[in-house]
Amino acid sequence: MEKVIGNPNHPQKGSRIEVDPIRNEDDIKKIKQLLIQCPRNYLLFVLGINNGIRVGDLLKLRVGDLRYLKIGQVHQIIEGKTGKKNVIIINKSVRNALDKFMKETDCDTRDYLFKSAKGENSPITINHVNKLVKQWTDSINLKQGNYGSHTLRKTWGYQQRIKFGVGFEVLCKRYNHSSPAVTMRYLGIEDKEEHGILMNEI
């Protein structure tokens, strides 16, 4: 893996590095506040960090897929990368973001949920989401780490594990990973947890 020189949030062309989750809950709140005046981007961020679905799959959603779903209801998808079934669930945060989007956006049921501003009915691209996430994290001065579209998916898993104590087996199933060990490496928190338990006195 090539070493990245300079700002890790803007790696050099050709370099490959992993993206990070947003670890601090206050930073999540700051980004929500930053996006509150842009209903599409606010919904993208909230939906991403509340479902742990790949951005490529989120961008395939159309307005009619989620528009009338109530809290607790699900929309089934087929993951583009794995071909496996998965679901998007509507929790209270997602429903509130959807309501805001529907109220402030002129959209048709057949429109892509995250529609491009270029005029045609096509979604924004993953590359565009990468740029957006970098802009958001830069705007709140989040300099520790590298951020991109996959940050939304990783943030969901990280917060589920650290804040809510969800087991790696459950996260593994949700992510459609091959094993909990893969999920541990993916979220980058196995060392932290291992060191933490060594502080437990017996």
Shape: globular
- How much beta, percentage-wise? under 5%
Oligomer: single chain
Which H/E pattern describes the elements? HHHHEEHHHHHH
CATH topology of the domain at 25-163: the name is hpI Integrase, Chain A
Stretches where pLDDT is under 50 for at least 5 consecutive residues are 1-11
* Annotation, overall tally of beta strands: 2
Number of helices: 10
**For the record, what is the CATH homologous superfamily label of the domain at 25-163?**
Intergrase catalytic core
Helix content: 40-55%
CA-CA gap between termini: 40 Å
**Which strand order does the major sheet show?**
1-2
Indicate the structural class.
mainly alpha
Largest sheet: 2 strands, antiparallel
Question: Any idea of the CATH class of the domain at 25-163?
Answer: Mainly Alpha
Rg over C-alpha atoms, rounded to the nearest angstrom: 17 Å
Specify the CATH architecture of the domain at 25-163: Orthogonal Bundle
Question: What's the average pLDDT?
Answer: 89
Question: How are the elements arranged and paired?
Answer:
Layout: H1 25-35, H2 39-51, H3 55-58, H4 63-66, E1 74-78, E2 85-89, H5 92-104, H6 126-139, H7 150-162, H8 168-175, H9 180-187, H10 190-197
Antiparallel strand pairs: 1-2
Helix pairs in contact: 2-5, 2-7, 8-9
Describe what this molecule looks like in 3D:
The protein is mainly alpha-helical and 202 residues long. It has a domain at 25-163: hpI Integrase, Chain A (Orthogonal Bundle). Helices cover 48% and strands 5% of the residues. It is built from ten helices and two strands, in the order H-H-H-H-E-E-H-H-H-H-H-H. Strands 1-2 form a two-stranded antiparallel ribbon. The longest helix is centred in the middle third of the chain and has 14 residues, at 126-139. Residues 1-11 have low confidence and may be disordered.
